[in-house]
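Hey all, sorry for the wall of text incoming. These are the two entities for the joint prediction.
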Amino acid sequence: MSLFPEPLLFEASRPGRRCTRTAGAERARATEGLPASELRQRPPALPELGELDLVRHYTRLSQKNYAITTNFYPLGSCTMKYNPVVHEKLAALESFAGLHPLQDDGEVQGALGVLFELQQILAACTGLPEVTLHPSAGAHGELTALMVLRAWLDETGQTQRRTILIPDSAHGTNPASCTLAGFRVVSIKTSDTGLLDVPDLREHLGPDTAGLMITNPNTLGLFEEKIAEICREVHAAGGKVYMDGANFNAIVGIARPGDFGVDMMHLNLHKTFSTPHGGGGPGAGPICVTAELGKYLPVPRVVEDEDGYRLDHDRPHSIGRVRAWHGNFLVLLRAYCYAKRLGAEGLRRVAENAVLNANYLRVKVHQKWRVPYDRICMHEFVARPKSEVKDQGIRTLDVAKRLIELGFHPPTIYFPLVVPEALMIEPTETESKETLDSFAGALNQIADEALQSPEILTGAPRNTPVQRVDEARAVKDPQLCYRCS
Amino acid sequence: MPYIQNTEADQQAMLAAIGARSLEDLFAPIPAGLRVAGALPLDPGLTEQQLNEHVSGIGTWNRAASARPCFLGGGVYDHAWPALVDHLMQRSEFLTAYTPYQPECSQGTLQWIFEFQSMIAELCGLEVANASMYDGASAAAEAALMAVGATGRRRIVVSAGVHPHTREALRTYGRHQDLEMVEAPLRDGLTSWEGLVGADTAAVLVQQPNFLGLVEALDRPAALARDSGALSIAAVYPVALGLLRSPGAAGFDVVVGDGQSLGVPMGYGGPSFGFFAARERFVRRMPGRLVGTTLDRQGRRAFTLTFQTREQHIRREKATSNICTNNALIALRGCIFMAAVGPRGLEEMACVSRQRALELRASLLQVSAIREAFPGQPFFNEIPFRIAGGEPAVTRLKTALQQAGIAAVLPLSRWYPGLEGVFTLACTERTTPQSIAQLAQVAADTLRMEMAL
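and here's what came out:
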């Protein structure tokens, strides 16, 4: 990593420097007929830099990051697997990237064909026949599905059903999406075995139940073994089951949520289908639903008829639009490439090796770390420091920072909330045994260091562009942009 | 198998370490009856070479607008960008990093986001901006929901000149928040706010330039909102802000928009990025991620995610929004783009786009069947025209232009039933005088038999 401090663009800016030029600009001519009151007095104070310094700036910034291409990145539930470089080349083809979203369907048959076939692929993988590719991310998919549920409830006269049940191990987006869609949230306990507490669920099902949002495999990395029974119970109470598909990579090609009795789910294409995370996005969060709920999906739908593919806006039961245009098309195209490259066999291998790698890592560390649910896991598992480590005053945060120092991106920490001091570890299928061995070695070394010389952990990281940052200060004295600082 | 490094021998060694006999053993927690028997009904996988051929082949079914004269607008514009945008955003340390939750090994992402927030805030004339939203439409919907939370009122007065997709997304989002949406109509192409903004108004929402391409007067909605204790929200086309004053300078509280024009391929509509800027007093109500500066242990400047107690992973059902993944990588494109063009480059792009629009108007008004739909109203780079012969003539013109290889003509009647026979054409700095002449010639030839307007 680059250890040199990098000035802000604004600090490096010098009046008169520039990179690019557009020929032929004449301000006096350009402003003819525009009301003087709506014109700028001066151009926006963007930074002014030459091309070399700008290229160097971003190149150096890139060197201050860990990424999948530089370091093992076992963030639980985030599925940081290899992003095939060929997808970048194909998504940059002008025949896709240069399409305007208002071109007539006849001029974009290739794009519509990709979308239509991707819908079919996702339907085949999930066992849920109706698919929309619109949602921009997982949370957006959750929200879209909850709106679909609202539309179904309203149309069937069940307006008293306004409660969604959510396990206490769920991602924070689940309850946040419920609030946005106008539902109340009731939390369901996790049992001693790390699975949804079915008696607690039963107790909370009732005439106000709109549905259950369940993550499967759950955030502890465990498959909800009673999923079919759970779906039956929710259905019997009059609700629908939504599955958060954040962890679908563990079961793709192995099992289909539609067969469990799930009514709706989202897929994070930036997880299971390997589109790049990009420092926080863009993602794509398609939702797949039963035939019964298909008519409520957002418009426009992509359909095929005798003339080819077309966008269908005429869906009177649809919840409407959840965004502009037709989804994050170039992300969807990358996911399509991935599915086509892998095929049925390759997708199944994804799940097999993701689960193999996670279990291997689990047994490599479970002696020096406490693994609260130490049995066959799916694509990830949760560990925590042993109590003697805690007695040394060492917290999971210290472990994470020491891992950074040893060249590994830390796992997800302090989540799920049901395990104190959690380290949620997801290696993904694309890592080699050697990488897993060296990460396990580092983690076990840290367990020893925590007991023998805890200051090694509390002083970490030392070899990074900055050492531990004062996050509280950023709130107390907010500096959110250059002008304010 | 593609992208999997475990060999057969690795798998056996790992299974032995786990104490499992086979890969199938690892799926024992999934009841046998719930497992797929056999393979999914999908085609066999392709080699990389086959994939290249397959996908490039599908690409030939498309006719990319960017590869020929493009006069389509409606919120997505065929602008140019310098090569360094593509080059730098493909740095895999940006491309394949996650959300920068661990600041010590994510300073690269955190610093560019801070710079992005700073540039967006400057462009919008406001104090703070977030790390990006999905797109312009969802950013506007989130702004309206923020206004509802901030004012405790439920009525949003929306200009009919706001992009139809934005209004539709707002309606979808608002339905479950008891949000009441009132449309301020267009009079002669510009928004008429009279009698609509009052003590029950949470926010007014205007788009600059509006969907017809016309430049709105921003003082009026800003004053109406201020006087009634509502928030003023503007949705903007960022390139236009190279020339037009920022809504912040006009007194607006929140500015949102779609960043497609800032160095992002049209990409059939996505992914782009949404941006969200506001006055500082709204920081704790804002959706999305925020990066701030702080100090590290050694007292050096450091960047970190901040105000995370607003967000879903901390606050769960009480969060200000459900957004988690945003459109960071595309916002990085916008960030590099803004830094590359700088203040004068953005102004030049705005100027040339407008100059070409003026030239387009002059050429097209030579065609007797075409007139400006709203003569005398100020347009920016997109112009509403009216055609003699109504909708059938619009369709004929569009088809003739398609046959001539020109992507053009956005009919407005689909969203504005009163505007039959009206369509828009947009220009950018990529528009050439030759393509304008060609468009005017095709229009003259096609509409020769129409009556003069």
